[in-house]
Specification:
Elements (H helix, E strand, L loop, with lengths): L10 E8 L2 E8 L2 E6 L6 H12 L12 E8 L2 E10 L2 E6 L7 H6 L1 E2 L4 H8 L3 H6 L4 H66 L4 H51 L8 H38 L2 H9 L13 E2 L5 E3 L6 E3 H91 L5 H59 L1 H24 L4 E15 L2 E15 L5 E4 L6 H18 L2 H4 L2 E4 L7 H11 L5 E6 L1 H4 L7 E3 L3
Parallel strand pairs: 3-15, 3-16, 7-14, 14-15
Antiparallel strand pairs: 1-2, 1-4, 4-5, 5-6, 8-9, 9-10, 11-12, 12-13
Helix pairs in contact: 3-12, 5-10, 6-9, 6-10, 7-9, 11-12
Length: 653
């Protein structure tokens, strides 16, 4: 939505063929604008024009027109919408101020039939109305995603902590290896010095000694290769054992998962598609009923005599829209039906409108049931898809594990063949060395063997030291990363808490807003013996679709006082019409503030306040004026007299 603040701009409207308006141009400055005049002066029609410019579809075409339009010039922008008759419906086109007007229809455009305004008197589910604009499925999806991210971080931190516990032992092992290497090097230096001394004594046998030393070097190298192969075999066999354990765990998990998690998916999709069709049909029917109810109520209110005259003067067979006008005849207790021209009792048509309203309420209840059932089916579908993805992942991991086991087993087989070859080479070299030995060389040969063994041991220890040092460095890097991971987790936990409690926060904020503003307005309007009206959030077990769940409901409490000051709880049925109207308007204001419409919708509209006395209307308008950039109020002249003279007044539309 665009921002509502346009530098306190004047809003200019050009309207053609909307409601009862032929053509008009009206400027609405910031602050309070009062549309004042008798009935049938197009005040409600102009409010509908504002709503249409905002994006609402709760506006009607003039009865004798097939096309209408409204253009809003606001700041540097122009928004224009057209209304075209399409059979019994009206089609809306063009660019509107709001991308989605549904929340504004509910809480900003407070005409007589506004659902939030009427909800208190009808005993509707107040919590459902407040929470209707909140995409609960999206919030749940975000919570699941954040939970998964937090789980990944926790797994990584658990790995870090596990590895960190190994760090002291590794550091001790590294110290021991360094000490052992140093000791071996000292011994090797001693043996090399002894070899040098012995070599000087047997210079004449240098040639034989060179051959022997060459064989000893080859023997040492071959033994080193053999030891490396043995270590590789051990490492591979340990990896194979680990992979087999992992495969067993995966197979156990696979056993627990259903073989066909998705089941009869087509049946589930058909059910969902059917429920969506029903939801769409009910939404359309509810919208049509709302338009029909509003149209009839306006016709009864406006008492437009010109239209009936035009119907009587029209030639036979000229036709006309089925719902062009509902007009009051000279007899104030009867009206002329716009469909057939016959005179009927006004009460009969009002009863028909009441039945239409009852039908609309029933369809809203049916719609809520379908939404609940649709939510259940979507949840089942998401859970099945989740299990299906998990089963596919487990099967894939099992296959990858088996492939890796086969690869490593092949490597072990190859390494064992290599081990046998090296073992034979070592035995052959030892035989050659034995053949070269003589009594003169016994001592030096022993020294060479010992030196060769020391060098082999040093190489092995240095290899172990490299492995241990690399592992220590890896753990230290993980430990350094742990702080960042904890910060990420803390941020995720904070966001999760916010997401999980978002619904509670909205509910609590709505209750606080209603209770705060209701207390304030009752203090201002001073209704006799009406002490307090407030909402309490309570948990109840209710049925949603096929399940019983615990959910929050809003209970409305009314507290009155007796003449002697004793307080007692009353019911909504015992409120006066004025008190009910004020309560409904304050509930709508709570929704307006909770959903931040004061930041995104520049207009708040008030109509049909006749049930409230003029002095209280003036106080109510003053109170609402603090929350909207443009507050537009339609009033009868006698009700408008009590309002501040500084307010902008429009007496002709």
């Amino acid at each position: 939505m665009p921002e509502s603040k346009q530098g306190s701009s004047v809003a200019h409207f050009d309207v053609t063929n909307i409601g009862g308006i032929d053509e008009t141009a009206v400027d609405i400055p910031p602050g309070v604008t009062v549309l004042t005049g008798k009935n049938a002066t197009n005040r409600t029609s102009f409010l509908q024009s504002i709503m249409a410019a905002m994006g609402s579809t709760q506006a009607t075409l003039k009865g004798d027109a097939d096309e209408g339009s409204v253009a809003l010039t606001y700041g540097d922008e122009v928004y224009e919408r057209t209304l075209t008759r399409a059979g019994d419906a009206v089609q809306f086109d063009g660019e509107s101020y709001l991308d989605d007007p549904s929340v504004a229809d509910l809480f900003a455009f407070l005409l007589e039939t506004n659902e939030a305004r009427r909800s208190v008197a009808r005993g509707d589910d107040l919590r459902e109305i407040i929470m209707r604009p909140v995409d609960i499925d999206a919030i749940r999806s975000e919570v699941e995603q954040l939970e998964a991210e937090k789980g990944d971080i926790n797994d990584e931190l658990a790995t870090v902590e596990s590895r960190q516990r190994d760090l002291p032992d590794l550091e001790q092992r590294r110290t021991e290896l360094r000490e052992q290497i140093e000791e071996k090097r000292e011994k090797l230096a001693e043996r090399e010095e002894e070899i040098d001394n012995s070599s000087r004594d047997i210079e004449e046998s240098r040639q034989e000694q060179d051959v022997l030393e060459e064989k000893l070097d080859e023997l040492r190298s071959t033994r080193s290769d053999l030891e490396s192969v043995r270590r590789d075999i051990e490492a591979q066999e340990e990896s194979i054992s680990s992979l087999k354990r992992e495969r067993a765990d995966l197979e156990d998990e696979l056993e627990e998962l259903p073989e066909t998690p998705m089941g009869d998916q087509q049946h589930l999709e058909d059910e969902i598609a059917s429920l969506r069709d029903q939801r769409q049909r009910l939404n359309s029917e509810i919208s049509d009923l709302q338009s029909l109810i509003q149209y009839n109520e306006e016709r009864l209110e406006e008492e437009d005599y010109d239209v009936i005259q035009s119907l009587e003067d029209a030639p036979e067979g000229s036709g006309g829209a089925v719902t062009e006008q509902l007009l009051e005849s000279e007899d104030e207790e009867s009206v002329v039906c716009w469909t057939c021209g016959s005179t009927v009792d006004r009460e009969q048509i009002e009863d028909t409108v009441d039945r239409l309203q009852d039908l609309r309420r029933q369809k809203v209840e049916d719609l809520n049931d379908i939404k609940s059932e649709l939510d259940d089916l979507k949840t089942d579908q998401r859970e099945a898809e989740k299990k299906q993805r998990r089963r596919e992942n487990v099967e894939r991991k099992i296959q990858e594990t088996e492939t890796e086991i086969e690869r490593r087993e092949e490597q072990v087989s190859s390494l064992k063949d290599r081990r046998e070859e090296l073992t034979e080479d070592v035995e052959s070299l030892e035989d050659e060395v034995d053949n070269l030995e003589s009594e003169d060389f016994d001592e030096i040969l022993a020294l060479h063997r010992e030196a060769n063994q020391l060098e082999f041991e040093i190489d092995s220890l240095e290899s172990d030291l490299d492995d241990v040092s690399a592992e220590i460095e890896e753990i230290e890097e993980l430990v350094n990363r742990a702080d960042d991971l904890r910060e990420e987790r803390d941020a995720l936990v904070e966001e999760l808490t916010d997401k999980r409690t978002k619904i509670d926060q909205i509910e609590a904020n709505a209750v606080d807003q209603f209770n705060e503003h209701m207390d304030a307005i009752l203090g201002i309007l001073e209704y006799e013996n009406l002490e307090r009206i407030w909402i309490e959030r309570v948990e109840q077990t209710v049925r949603e679709g096929r399940q019983k769940v615990d959910r929050t409901v809003f209970e409305l409490h009314i507290v009155r006082t007796t003449e002697n000051g004793a307080a007692y709880e009353d019911t909504i049925e015992h409120l006066s019409e004025s008190e009910r109207e004020v309560t409904g308007l304050i509930f709508a204001l709570a929704g307006y503030l909770v959903h931040d419409l004061h930041e995104s919708v520049p207009f708040m509209l008030l109509d049909s306040l006749e049930a409230i006395d003029s002095a209280r209307i003036a106080e109510l308008v003053e109170y609402f004026a603090d929350y909207a950039e443009h507050l537009v109020v339609a009033l009868l002249p006698e009700d408008a007299q009590a309002l501040d003279d500084d307010f902008n007044r429009i007496t002709s539309i």
